[in-house]
C-alpha cells in the first residue's frame, strides 16, 4: 500500500515540476506549447477561411470548450490520470507477477525500422479508439458520458477536447494492454499524439477540408460533422463516422455516411434541451442521471 501512495505522491510531484517547465520553457518537445500553437493556427484558419461564414469567431461555447481543452489535456489527463495509471500499471504488473509473468511484451519490434514501429503503434492505437468510440455510442451508460462531446451545437477546433474525463480512462485503459504487449513505452507517443491532436482539431474546425483522395484514409471536418448531426439515418440509430484520426475503418466496416456536405446541419442529440450547460453540471450529469434512474426506474 505504501508503495502505491508513494507512486501517487511522486506522480503529482513529478507532474507539477513537469507542468511548470512545460509552461515556462517552450520547446519542440513540449505538449503545452504544441497545443497552444495548434489551437491558434487552426483558429486563424477558421477566422480567415471559414466554412460557415456566419458563424461567430467566438462561437457558442467557445470558452467552455477552451476550458475543457486544458482540463482534459493537462489537469486531468496528465495529473490525475498519470497518478491513477502509474498505480494501475504497477498493480497490474504485481498481479501478473503472482503468476510468474514478468513481462507482457509478446511482439518484439525493437529491431524494426523506427518509422514502421510508429506506424504500427499509430494504426493499433487508432483502431482501438475507433472501437471504443463505437462502444461509447452503443452502451447506454457510456453514451451518457459521451453526450458531453455531442452537446456541441457549433463546431470549432476547441470542441475536439470537449469530453467527459471518464473518456480518457476508457480510451487509455483499452489501449494499455495491447500496446504494452507490442512493447511500447509512453514516450513514444509524442509524435503520434501531436499528429492526432492536429487532425482532431481540424476535424472539429469550421473549415471546408477533405484532403482530396486522402479522405478515405484521414478523417476530416465534413466527415466528422456528420458524426455530430442531430438526426441520424433511420437504419443507423447509434451513429456514423466513428473515426478519430483515420477514416479508413469506417470505409472498411461500412459505418461511413456523408450524404452531402451538410454545412448547416443541426448538431447534437435528441433531448439535448435538457442537457446541462455548465462544465461542473456536465461532468456530474452521468452520475446524477444514474442515481435518478436507480431511485426511479421506469
Ligand atoms: Zn461520438
Ligand atoms: Zn467530435
From TrEMBL:
A Pfam family the protein falls into: FA_hydroxylase
Q: What name has this protein been given in UniProt?
A: Sterol desaturase family protein
- The residues covered by the Fatty acid hydroxylase domain are 118-255
Single GO MF annotation: iron ion binding
Q: Where is the protein found, in the record's own terms?
A: Endomembrane system
Q: Which Gene Ontology cellular-component terms appear in the entry?
A: endomembrane system; membrane
Q: Does the keyword Transmembrane apply?
A: yes
Q: Name one GO biological process term.
A: lipid biosynthetic process
Q: Where is the signal peptide?
A: none
Q: What InterPro entries does the entry give?
A: Fatty_acid_hydroxylase (IPR006694), Sterol_desaturase/TMEM195 (IPR051689)
Listed A to Z, the keywords are: Lipid metabolism, Membrane, Oxidoreductase, Transmembrane, Transmembrane helix
Where mainly found?
membrane
- How would you describe this protein's topology in the membrane? Multi-pass membrane protein
Q: Where are the transmembrane segments?
A: 31-51, 63-84
Amino acid at each position: 500500500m505504501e508503495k502505491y501512495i508513494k507512486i501517487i505522491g511522486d506522480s503529482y510531484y513529478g507532474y507539477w515540476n513537469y507542468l511548470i517547465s512545460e509552461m515556462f520553457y517552450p520547446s519542440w518537445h513540449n505538449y503545452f506549447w504544441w497545443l497552444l500553437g495548434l489551437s491558434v493556427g487552426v483558429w486563424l484558419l477558421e477566422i480567415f477561411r471559414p466554412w460557415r461564414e456566419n458563424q461567430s469567431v467566438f462561437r457558442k461555447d467557445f470558452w467552455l470548450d477552451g476550458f475543457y481543452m486544458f482540463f482534459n489535456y493537462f489537469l486531468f489527463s496528465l495529473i490525475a490520470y498519470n497518478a491513477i495509471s502509474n498505480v494501475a500499471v504497477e498493480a497490474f504488473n504485481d498481479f501478473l507477477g503472482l503468476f510468474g509473468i514478468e513481462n507482457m511484451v509478446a511482439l518484439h519490434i525493437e529491431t524494426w525500422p523506427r518509422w514502421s514501429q510508429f506506424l504500427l503503434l499509430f494504426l493499433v492505437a487508432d483502431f482501438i479508439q475507433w472501437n471504443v468510440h463505437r462502444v461509447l455510442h452503443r452502451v447506454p451508460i457510456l453514451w451518457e458520458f459521451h453526450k458531453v462531446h455531442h452537446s456541441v451545437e457549433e463546431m470549432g477546433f476547441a470542441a475536439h477536447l470537449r469530453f467527459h474525463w471518464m473518456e480518457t480512462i476508457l480510451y487509455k485503459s483499452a489501449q494499455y494492454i495491447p500496446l504494452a504487449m507490442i512493447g511500447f513505452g509512453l514516450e513514444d507517443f509524442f509524435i503520434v499524439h501531436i499528429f492526432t491532436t492536429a487532425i482532431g482539431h481540424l476535424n472539429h474546425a469550421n473549415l471546408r477540408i477533405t484532403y482530396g483522395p486522402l479522405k478515405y484514409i484521414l478523417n476530416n471536418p465534413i466527415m466528422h460533422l456528420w458524426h455530430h448531426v442531430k438526426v441520424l439515418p433511420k437504419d443507423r440509430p447509434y451513429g456514423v463516422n466513428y473515426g478519430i484520426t483515420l477514416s479508413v475503418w469506417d470505409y472498411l466496416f461500412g459505418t461511413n455516411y456523408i450524404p452531402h456536405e451538410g454545412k448547416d446541419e443541426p448538431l447534437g442529440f435528441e433531448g439535448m434541451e435538457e442537457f446541462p450547460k455548465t462544465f461542473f453540471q456536465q461532468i456530474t450529469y452521468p452520475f446524477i442521471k444514474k442515481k435518478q434512474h436507480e431511485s426511479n426506474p421506469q
